[in-house]
Specification:
The chain is α/β, with parallel strands linked by helices. It has ten helices and eleven strands. The longest helix is centred in the C-terminal third of the chain and has 30 residues, at about 315-345. It is globular.
C-alpha cells in the first residue's frame, strides 16, 4: 500500500494519453490493464466488501486507487500490505466527482474503472468490461447494471429496485451514465464535472455524448450497490437531484432528453406526466369524487410497469408501501424542481460545470 496526501485543484481540464504497455498478439491488443478508482467518504461499513470484490479479480498488473475525500478511514482497512493499493487523501471534502477526477489523473491503467465505496463488483465484472473494450475499439465509456438482491430497510430496497427498473428499460447506446460502477478508456477520458454533486454522473455522460464518444450500458454486468437510505436521506437526495436536474436542463436547454426514457433514464415523458397527475389529485378531491377516482386510476395506470416489476420482485405488501412512497416522493421532486427553477431564473445558482 502507498499512502499519499495533499491535493491542489487545477482549473484546467486535463487529457490523459494511452499507456504504451499493452500486450499485443499478432498486431492486436490482447490485454488491458485496469485502474480501479474508489472515491471514499465515510463508507466504513462497506469499504471492506468493496475492496475484497476488487482484489478477488484484480490482476497483478492492475492498480487500486482509494481516494479519501476528506473522510475517516477505518483502522482495520484490508489489503494495506498489497502494493497494488494506493491511497490518496484530499485536503477537504470536495465531492465524489473531484475524487474520481483526482484518481484518474494519478491512474496508469488502460481502463479507468470507477467504483463507489458502497459497491461490490461481481466476480467477472473486470474481465467482462475488459472484453467489451477489446472487442469494440470505438467504445469510450461503459457502465454496469444493478443486482436486485434485498437490501436492509424499505427505502434502500426501494431505491435499488427503482434504479434497477430504470436501467432495465435502457437501450445499449446512451447519452448518460449511472456512475456507481463505470469504465472509461483512459485515452478518451474526459474530466468529471466539478460544479455538481448529485447528478455528476449524468452530466459526465452527457459530456461524452456531446463530444461524439460512444457510451454503452452493459446489461450483462451486475454489481451489488449497498448504499443505505433512510427516510430523511432519501428525501434530501431526491430533492437535490431534482433541483440540479432542473438547473442543468435550463442552462443547457436539454429538454429533448425528456422525450426518451430509453436514452436518459432519470426523466421521461411518463414520469413527467405521472408528476402532473399526482399534483392534480388533491384538486380533484375538492372538485368531484369521480374526478378523484379517475385521476388516481390514471396515475396508477401510467406506472403500471413499475408496480408490476416491484410485485414480481418483492410482493404485494411492498407494492402498497411503494405506491404510498412514490406519491409522496413526487412532491419532493416537484419541490426540488420549483426551487431549481427559482434559483436558475433569478441567477442565484449555476452549476458551473467544467
Amino acid at each position: 500500500m502507498i499512502w499519499r496526501t495533499g491535493f491542489e485543484q487545477s482549473k484546467k481540464a486535463f487529457m490523459i494519453t494511452t499507456s504504451d504497455g499493452l500486450k499485443e498478439s499478432e498486431g492486436k491488443i490482447s490485454e488491458l490493464t485496469v485502474s480501479f478508482i474508489i472515491p471514499y467518504f465515510n463508507s466504513g461499513k462497506t469499504i471492506a466488501a468493496c475492496l475484497q470484490a476488487i482484489f478477488n479479480q484484480a490482476k497483478i498488473t492492475d492498480e487500486i486507487l482509494l481516494i479519501n475525500d476528506g473522510g475517516l478511514l477505518p483502522k482495520d482497512l484490508p489489503y494495506l500490505n498489497d502494493e497494488r493499493l494506493k491511497c490518496f487523501s484530499l485536503n477537504e471534502n470536495q465531492g465524489s466527482a473531484a475524487a474520481r477526477d483526482f484518481g484518474a489523473h494519478k491512474a496508469q491503467g488502460d481502463l479507468l474503472l470507477f467504483v463507489d465505496a458502497d459497491v461490490a463488483l461481481s466476480s467477472t465484472a473486470r474481465s467482462m468490461m475488459e472484453k467489451r473494450f477489446l472487442e469494440d475499439l470505438s467504445l469510450s465509456l461503459c457502465f454496469a447494471g444493478l443486482e436486485i438482491s434485498p437490501k436492509s430497510g424499505f427505502f434502500s430496497d426501494y431505491k435499488n429496485l427503482y434504479m434497477s427498473y430504470i436501467l432495465s428499460h435502457l437501450v445499449e447506446q446512451l447519452n448518460y451514465v449511472y456512475g456507481c460502477c463505470c469504465v472509461s478508456r483512459r485515452s478518451t477520458y474526459l474530466p468529471w464535472p466539478r460544479g455538481v454533486r448529485y447528478i455528476d454522473d449524468s452530466v459526465w455522460g452527457y459530456e461524452y455524448f456531446r463530444s461524439g464518444k460512444k457510451i454503452v450500458f452493459a446489461s450483462d454486468i451486475l454489481v451489488d450497490h449497498q448504499k443505505e437510505y433512510k427516510l430523511g436521506s432519501l428525501i434530501k437526495n431526491d430533492f437535490r437531484v431534482a433541483r440540479e436536474f432542473m438547473i442543468f436542463f435550463l442552462e443547457r436547454k436539454r429538454w429533448s432528453v425528456v422525450t426518451a426514457q430509453e436514452k436518459f433514464g432519470h426523466t421521461s415523458l411518463s414520469q413527467v406526466f405521472s408528476l402532473i397527475v399526482a399534483v392534480l389529485i388533491p384538486f380533484c378531491f375538492f372538485l368531484h369524487p369521480l374526478l378523484l377516482g379517475l385521476a388516481i386510476m390514471i396515475w396508477v395506470f401510467v406506472q403500471f410497469g413499475f408496480w408490476s416489476y416491484f410485485f414480481k420482485q418483492r410482493g404485494f405488501l411492498f407494492v402498497l408501501k411503494a405506491v404510498a412512497w412514490t406519491y409522496f416522493d413526487h412532491f419532493i421532486y416537484l419541490s426540488g424542481m420549483v426551487v431549481g427553477l427559482f434559483l436558475s431564473v433569478l441567477g442565484l445558482r449555476k452549476l458551473h460545470v467544467h
